[in-house]
Amino acid sequence: MADDTTAEDLPASTDSFTDPSAGSFTDGYVGDPAVRDEWDGRYSEHHRLWSGQPNGALVAETADLAPGRALDVGCGEGADAIWLARAGWDVTALEVSGVALARAAAHARDAGADVRWVHAGLAEAALPPASFDLVSAQYPALLRTPDAAAEHALLAAVAPGGVLLLVHHAGMDEHHAERQDGGFDPADYVWPSMVAALLGDDWRVEVDEERPRVVPEGGAGAHHTDDVVLRARRLR
What we know:
This protein has 236 residues and is of the alpha/beta class. It has one domain: Rossmann fold (3-Layer(aba) Sandwich), CATH 3.40.50.150. It has 6 helices and 8 strands. It has helices at residues 33-44, 56-61, 79-86, 98-111, 149-157, 192-196; strands at 17-18, 69-73, 90-95, 115-119, 132-138, 158-169, 203-212, 226-234. The chain has an 8-stranded mixed beta sheet. The longest helix is centred in the middle third of the chain and has 14 residues, at 98-111. The protein is globular and about 45 Å long.
């Protein structure tokens, strides 16, 4: 991530803000170790898990936005963060998997993109509040908690006048009673409808719809054909 963050803006402990040239993202991780280990395992099973292309909804929904400070939540192997950086955004990219972040940093170096990488869970990252003109969460695996910590963290990160863009696979939040894919339970995760329910008078919903997904070639998740897209602007 390249941004205008000053020392005063950062949380007291910045160990999770990692130099992308360091090569290791395990030390300084802030979050649930079990979640980190689970995702490290998933990434380690594949030479490349995702397509390497930016998500179509991100490209479409940022076309009319002036570049500013962006937060990419769950950046994976870095395709969205790199695309945003090359489009002129100052990008912070957040990810629980150190394996994914090492790949993302390498891809960014190859692309000549300047990104600050944060090895942390969203709720634990202690990001500067109300600091991002764009908070993008593309198909994030955010665990639900009784206090809606992840949902509130997404909203809190958006600056006045900024945009929250949350995209997920359509229909997944309706399968609360069944476990899929070897133990994955959609009821355990945050979906756009849950975030939309928290929006108050200080937000304006600009897009809240289901649409056909622009599916990149290759990568996991290509079998999902429709997206739910929530785009909301913080008014104050």
